Structure prediction request, 216 residues.
Amino acid sequence: MVTSPLPASVLGLAPVVPVVVVEDVGDAVPLARALVAGGLPAIEVTLRTPSALDAIREIAREVPGAVVGAGTVIRPGQVAEAVAVGARFLVSPGWTDVLLEAMRASGVPFLPGVSTASEVVALLERGVREMKFFPAQAAGGTAYLKSLSGPLPQARFCPTGGIGPDSAPDYLALSNVGCVGGSWMLPPDAVAARDWGRVEALAREAAALSAGGTCR
Prediction:
């Protein structure tokens, strides 16, 4: 197995974290290689399909440079399963105390999901400063996150949900945003056609996104 270094923080790996749904485990390695070649090493494989854990295992084994994580973690049991197959970070759409403690005990970085100020405050009380903001666009977008930065400057976020290449720079310009999550570099038709060259090109454009700017 290729052992990538355990990141100190998910937020510092790249400006964009691809959110990947793997239907066919045979796609996992070439897809991950395309993303890494395009400059996006942090890859969140969502636990939404029967192939997800096998996909994480194959990426961890076969793709040097990839820092593969598990997303859509909603049950404590999934934490152990994901870490056992090589997940280097964990992402959840929301959290409970039981799930939070399982993620904390895993030893890998994690981003529990929030969408309200009260949820942010509750996580800060528990010593968690890095979070996923989800669903970003539906929950208030950049205006909401900017409003949180005044009273809660110690919290930092990875907004995910409805973000694309046009809106990502606006999120990245915020002081409390470390990266964004998205899937626009993985258009369904490209994945279905196994057009990994197109995926790599889109990943390269995403990796070039900067705060307040566009692809360069």
The first helix runs from residue 28 to 37. Confidence is low (pLDDT under 50) at residues 212-216. Strands lie at 16-20, 42-46, 67-71, 90-91, 110-111, 113-114, 130-133, 156-159, 180-182. The chain has nine helices and nine strands.
